């Protein structure tokens, strides 16, 4: 089956977001085993690599049709290609970055984006000291030029790496410029239209969850985990 043939069979609204998150994890595992020369893999082996129950893995795939063969497992290249198509990462996805500070610089320097056909095509800031400077391979533009720049680029994904106080205003500029999906690193809930998707990345929230689980662990287990 051509990977593209699976697309009409299901819409994103029918697939739970946690399933899509796990698909991204499976994709990374498949990339790693392919790099190691592995051609077939079992659900049990993927469970070991991804830390996700094999039955959950099979359930996640069931949203999208038939995969693998009993007793044989999954062909790594085929499964990788099909999950890539499901996530629409088999085509180049252009992205805008707003915020050229330390976080923005780290994101711009992350080479893994290009590996997954995620192209950072423009960077913006409002600090005169940053505008005109290089951020990775990009020249930092003034944030007020987002609409003009993106009229040519056509990016639909925006990465928001600005302070909380500026986040909503910048998100509004992004949306007006044609962005329909935002990865938000600012600690604020953005107000966006129904046709715009936001994913929030809150470091303090994630660390708070870790702190809770850390203290909930048995003392001996906490000690062993901290050794080496």
Please characterize this protein's 3D structure.
The protein is an alpha/beta fold and 228 residues long. It has 2 domains: 3-86, Winged helix-like DNA-binding domain superfamily/Winged helix DNA-binding domain (Arc Repressor Mutant, subunit A), CATH 1.10.10; 93-201, Rossmann fold (3-Layer(aba) Sandwich). 44% of the residues lie in helices and 16% in strands. It has 10 helices and 9 strands. The protein has helices spanning 17-35, 43-50, 54-62, 76-86, 102-108, 112-115, 146-153, 164-176, 203-216, 219-226; strands at residues 40-41, 74-75, 93-98, 118-125, 134-135, 138-142, 157-160, 181-184, 197-200. A 7-stranded mixed sheet has the order 5-6-4-3-7-8-9. It has a two-stranded antiparallel sheet with strand order 1-2. A hairpin with a 2-residue loop joins strand 5 (134-135) and strand 6 (138-142). The protein is globular. The termini are far apart.
SSE layout:
Layout: H1 17-35, E1 40-41, H2 43-50, H3 54-62, E2 74-75, H4 76-86, E3 93-98, H5 102-108, H6 112-115, E4 118-125, E5 134-135, E6 138-142, H7 146-153, E7 157-160, H8 164-176, E8 181-184, E9 197-200, H9 203-216, H10 219-226
Parallel strand pairs: 3-4, 3-7, 4-6, 7-8, 8-9
Antiparallel strand pairs: 1-2, 5-6
Compose a concise summary of this entry:
With 228 residues, the chain is α/β, with parallel strands linked by helices. The chain has helices at 17-35, 43-50, 54-62, 76-86, 102-108, 112-115, 146-153, 164-176, 203-216, 219-226; strands at residues 40-41, 74-75, 93-98, 118-125, 134-135, 138-142, 157-160, 181-184, 197-200.
């Amino acid at each position: 089956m051509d990977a593209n043939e699976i697309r009409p069979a299901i819409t994103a609204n029918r697939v739970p977001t946690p399933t899509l998150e796990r698909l991204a994890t499976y994709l990374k595992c498949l990339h790693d085993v392919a790099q190691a020369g592995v051609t077939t893999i079992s659900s049990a082996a993927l469970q070991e690599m991804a830390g996700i129950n094999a039955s959950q893995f099979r359930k996640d795939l069931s949203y999208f049709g038939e995969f693998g063969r009993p007793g044989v497992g999954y062909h790594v290249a085929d499964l990788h290609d099909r999950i890539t198509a499901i996530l629409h990462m088999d085509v180049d996805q252009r992205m805008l970055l707003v915020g050229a500070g330390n976080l923005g610089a780290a994101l711009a320097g992350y080479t893994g984006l290009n590996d997954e056909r995620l192209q950072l095509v423009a960077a913006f800031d409002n600090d005169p000291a940053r505008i005109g400077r290089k951020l990775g391979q990009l020249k930092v533009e003034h944030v007020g030029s987002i609409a003009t720049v993106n009229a040519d680029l056509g990016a639909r994904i925006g990465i928001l790496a600005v302070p909380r106080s500026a986040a909503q205003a910048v998100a509004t500029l992004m949306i007006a410029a044609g962005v329909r999906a935002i990865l938000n690193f600012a600690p604020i809930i953005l107000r966006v239209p129904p046709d715009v998707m936001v994913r929030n990345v809150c470091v303090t929230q994630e660390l708070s969850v870790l702190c809770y689980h850390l203290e909930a662990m048995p003392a001996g287990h906490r000690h062993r985990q901290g050794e080496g």
